Amino acid sequence: MNKSLSNENGITLIELLATLAIVSFVSILLYGVLMDGFNYSKKSKEKVSIQQEMNIVVTSITKFHESYGSYDIKVDGPNSSKIQLISTDKTIELSNPSFEYSLIDYKGVTETPFSPTTTVSTTQPLYIKIIIKDKKQPSQTYEVKTIISRL
Fold first, then answer.
1. pTM of the prediction?
2. Successive 10-residue mean pLDDT values, the chain, 151 residues
3. How many domains does the chain have?
4. Cβ(102)–Cβ(142) under 8 Å?
5. Contact call for residues 65 and 120 (beta carbons, < 8 A)
6. Which of the residues 2, 26, 126, 127 could staple to 107 if both were Cys, CB 3.0 to 4.6 A apart?
7. Strand, coil or helix: what is 27?
8. Residue 16: phi, psi to the nearest 5?
9. Cα distance between residue 110 and residue 149, in whole Å
10. What's the CA gap between 143 and 100, in Å, rounded?
11. First vs last Cα of the chain: how many Å apart?
């Protein structure tokens, strides 16, 4: 009778519970790392998107400034949904439904927002501060302060 009790080929309930506890702990850790990776990826993607939008805006204004003697910059308010660059023969509209644009003139002592229509003469440098804000994530903003002049 002693021989049958000492011959154990299976696993005990304690061993099974210990294994499940270890697997659960490792799974929770991996899930946390995975979710942090997804969140970081999403934030990084949003940051790159707003930077690309700023590059488009600055490049468009610079090209317009270098190409025409004078032109108008039209915005629909301090936090506008679109920017229009208007010359005598060409109009460019910069808009993205995900972003708000703020254009500020910082020449001189104070910063003043652009009026709804601002005429720009390319004989003088354009002192401009551009702020782009993500509508879905208002804390996600990107700001560029630059001087655009004709070469």
1. 0.77
2. 61 91 96 94 92 95 91 91 93 93 89 92 92 91 92 74
3. 1
4. no
5. yes
6. 127
7. helix
8. -65, -45
9. 20
10. 12
11. 102
**DSSP one-letter code for 108:** S
Domain housing 120: 13-148
H or E segment and range at residue 60:
helix 13-67
Q: What is the pLDDT at residue 6?
A: 61
Q: Length of the chain in residues, anyone? A: 151
Whether 116 is in a domain gets the answer: yes
**C-alpha span between 4 and 10 (Å, rounded):** 13
Distance CA 33, CA 12 (A): 32
Domain-located, residue 5? no
The two three-digit tokens of residue 66, written as one number:
């270098």
- Domain assignment present for residue 70? The answer is yes
Write out the two tokens for 31: 């899930």
Contacts with 124 (C-beta within 8 Å, 6 or more apart), sequence order: none
